[in-house]
């Protein structure tokens, strides 16, 4: 068959919205971009644009971009330890740099012959050092935006290699491209080059590549045919039910090389066939029984496919594996379990037991978990252990051979095994189980019974006691990640290298909560001087700040009296309103005006807190406005009296200046000094400084107001009060 000389190529362009980058502390800080690469793509070109936003004194900045086909990239930029029994393959990454003084970086990254399907890009800034930055107008200093755009080139009429039918092709400087379909149960794919002739006689200098690029080692099989007129390359157990790309290129320049190419697929064996009379009652019992079992174990009443009546073997092909039926049970987003038709799988040494586990693209954002349990009373023959191999796209049919897979073992000494794969590829996965014997015994009759539990969850063990599992989303794609606390790190919050001790957690909780008791002196002073509304606001702030910080603690030292979000809102609101009413009170306005400003300011601050609780202007705005009101009132009084206001130097030296210094120290610590590691004592200093400043800054009691604000009465008759404006002054 003669192959068409030219191919038709088509282009495509895909773009994602720019996203602001964050410093990395957990996977939720990355900006994940999801693209779909169509079949027959021959070139993938990423246009990566990083732009710098507004900011002063921005130094050189590195941005890391990770690439992966099939699932989100598994990354470890801060080099934490992964949980035990976790199989990890880190994604390919690229570092982009924006030099100081430059506003952007544009980088092209090419992938030749990319694998079709889902591709993911994850971008982030370097490690978060824990500095707590206050936002100004909603934007942090030196912000960075990342945008990924994909240019695609694909062949619209790629020649198909049919099995054992040669194609005749003339090769020029442009590589020749073909595709071949690999059916299910294929054990071997062979590609042959025949009748090749070049300028150097039989040496055509050809290079055969089978497979597509995933930026992982081993995704492509290459064979150099230099010096050979005929050559071939083989792929053992290629991906089932998929198209494989075959590329033929030459090292000779300015030459035309005719050759023929063919492919052969070997179906070495198939599993036992199931009859049309499927036993549904067995599966009904399999589904119902585990739901009543709190441990999630499998039902013992299930009937395996091999033991069902009506099961027959294909007499024309050898049986090379056992393949029990598996039910896919979707429970929720990133919550999936596989129910196996037999609770106890018989695993022998002659044939592997293979479980087919179908994953949809939506399952790739979770954690793939396989648990094995060996029934130690069922061991027969020269049993040593059971080896488990977990692979995507095609199974391992001989577990004793050296093949790449996620591996686990169960034996008489270790009867349980666990396999975990973060962000598994969106493919059909296969779990191969086979008995491995002692070298000195006959292995023909060795067998064991193993129970398997297979599931997909959003996070590893729900992130444990020191983490929280978060369900994240990029457009319509969901993925899970753990956000850790109390110094714990890692994908499952299991890396305790920087973990806080219990005494450290308790000290942090006590400092942050008990430091709020410094608001008791301001409350007492306010009540004594007749400022009852102000005292109520200080008490509100003290109460909610105490219980917010008790609820906000990491680890085990936590106590929440109500919803966390409610406590946080009340704490932030009370803090700013306390500052607002204190400065307005210092303006010494008449009561109707003062209380109008109290109410109006509280309503505006509540709205601002709902929009952005951590915005720096939520504090600076009310402070600046209150200072303007206070200074205006003081200037008016000073001009009216022809003297400085307040008039007494003792008021300035003993009260105003210490109060201003305390407030400035608290603001500087709050804005510039707080980090994640020192938060518990720097924020406690903020509590103490603010409360201390209120004690000094509250104006003295009005002369017509008695101590504690009690009304003077003599024998049930009220004493007359002179409420002229002149008596509202400070002497």
TrEMBL record:
Q: Which GO terms describe its cellular component?
A: plasma membrane
Alphabetically sorted, this entry's keywords are: Cell membrane, Membrane, Transmembrane, Transmembrane helix
Alphabetized InterPro entries for the sequence: EGF, NGX6/PGAP6/MYMK
- Bilayer topology annotation: Multi-pass membrane protein
Query: Which residue ranges does the record assign to the EGF-like domain?
Result: 482-493
Query: Major location, coarse class?
Result: membrane
Q: What is this protein called?
A: Post-glycosylphosphatidylinositol attachment to proteins 6
Q: Can you name the source organism?
A: Cyprinus carpio
């Amino acid at each position: 068959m003669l192959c068409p000389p030219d191919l038709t190529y088509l282009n495509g362009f895909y773009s994602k919205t720019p996203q602001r980058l964050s410093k990395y502390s957990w996977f939720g800080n990355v900006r994940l971009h999801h693209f779909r690469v169509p079949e027959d793509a021959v070139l993938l070109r990423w246009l990566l644009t990083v732009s710098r936003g507004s900011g002063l004194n921005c130094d050189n900045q590195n941005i890391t971009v990770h690439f992966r086909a099939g699932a989100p990239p598994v990354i470890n930029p801060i080099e934490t330890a992964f949980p035990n029994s976790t199989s990890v393959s880190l994604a390919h990454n690229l570092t982009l740099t924006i030099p100081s003084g430059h506003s952007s970086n544009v980088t092209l990254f090419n992938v030749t012959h990319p694998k079709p399907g889902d591709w993911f890009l994850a971008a982030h800034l370097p490690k978060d050092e824990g500095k707590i930055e206050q936002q100004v107008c909603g934007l942090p200093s030196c912000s960075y935006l990342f945008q990924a755009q994909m240019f695609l080139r694909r062949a619209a009429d790629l020649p198909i290699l049919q099995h054992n039918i040669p194609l005749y092709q003339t090769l020029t400087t442009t590589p020749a491209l073909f595709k071949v379909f690999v059916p299910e149960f294929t054990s071997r794919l062979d590609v042959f080059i025949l009748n090749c002739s070049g300028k150097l006689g039989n040496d055509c200098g050809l290079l055969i590549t089978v497979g597509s690029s995933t930026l992982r080692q081993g995704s492509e099989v290459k064979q150099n045919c230099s010096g050979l007129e005929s050559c071939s390359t083989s792929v053992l157990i290629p991906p089932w039910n998929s198209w494989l790309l075959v590329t033929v290129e030459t090292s000779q320049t300015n030459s035309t090389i005719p050759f023929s190419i063919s492919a052969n697929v070997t179906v070495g064996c198939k599993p036992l066939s199931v009859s049309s009379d499927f036993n549904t009652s067995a599966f009904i019992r399999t589904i119902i029984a585990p739901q009543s079992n709190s441990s999630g174990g499998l039902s013992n009443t299930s009937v395996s496919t091999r033991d069902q009546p009506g099961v027959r073997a294909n007499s024309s092909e050898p049986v090379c594996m056992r393949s029990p039926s598996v039910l896919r049970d979707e429970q929720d987003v990133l919550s999936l379990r596989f129910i196996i038709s037999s609770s106890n799988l018989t695993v022998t040494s002659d044939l592997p037991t293979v479980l087919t586990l179908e994953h949809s693209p939506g399952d790739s954002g979770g954690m793939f978990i396989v648990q094995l349990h060996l029934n130690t009373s069922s061991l027969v023959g020269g049993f040593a252990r059971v080896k488990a191999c977990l692979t995507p796209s095609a199974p391992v049919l001989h577990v004793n051979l050296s093949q790449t897979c996620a591996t686990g073992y169960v034996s008489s000494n270790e009867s349980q095994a666990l396999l975990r794969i973060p962000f598994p590829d969106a493919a059909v996965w296969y779990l191969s189980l086979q008995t491995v014997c002692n070298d000195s015994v006959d292995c023909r009759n060795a067998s064991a019974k193993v129970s398997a539990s297979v599931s997909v969850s959003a996070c590893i063990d729900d992130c444990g006691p020191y983490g929280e599992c978060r369900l994240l989303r990029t457009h319509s794609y969901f993925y899970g990640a753990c956000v850790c606390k109390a110094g714990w790190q890692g994908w499952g919050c299991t890396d305790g290298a920087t973990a806080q001790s219990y005494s450290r957690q308790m000290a942090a909780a006590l400092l942050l909560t008990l430091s709020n008791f410094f608001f008791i002196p301001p409350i007492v002073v306010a009540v004594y001087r007749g400022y009852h509304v102000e005292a109520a606001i200080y008490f509100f702030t003290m109460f909610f700040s105490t219980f917010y910080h008790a609820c906000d603690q990491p680890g085990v030292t936590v106590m929440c009296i109500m919803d966390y979000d409610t406590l946080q809102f009340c704490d932030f609101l009370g803090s700013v309103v306390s500052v607002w009413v204190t400065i307005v009170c210092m303006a010494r306005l008449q009561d109707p005006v003062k209380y109008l400003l109290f109410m109006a300011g509280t309503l505006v601050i509540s709205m601002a807190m709902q929009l952005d609780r951590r915005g720096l202007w939520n504090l600076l705005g009310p402070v600046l406005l209150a200072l303007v009101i206070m200074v205006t009132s003081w200037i008016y009084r000073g001009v009216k009296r022809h003297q400085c206001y307040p008039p007494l130097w003792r008021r300035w030296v003993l009260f105003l200046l210490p109060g201003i210094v305390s407030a400035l120290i608290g603001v500087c610590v709050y804005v510039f000094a707080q980090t994640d590691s020192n938060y518990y004592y720097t924020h406690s200093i903020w509590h103490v400084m603010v409360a201390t400043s209120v004690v000094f800054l509250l104006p003295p009691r009005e002369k017509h107001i008695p101590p504690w604000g009690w009304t003077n009465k003599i024998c049930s008759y009220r004493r007359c009060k002179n409420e002229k404006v002149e008596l509202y002054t400070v002497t």
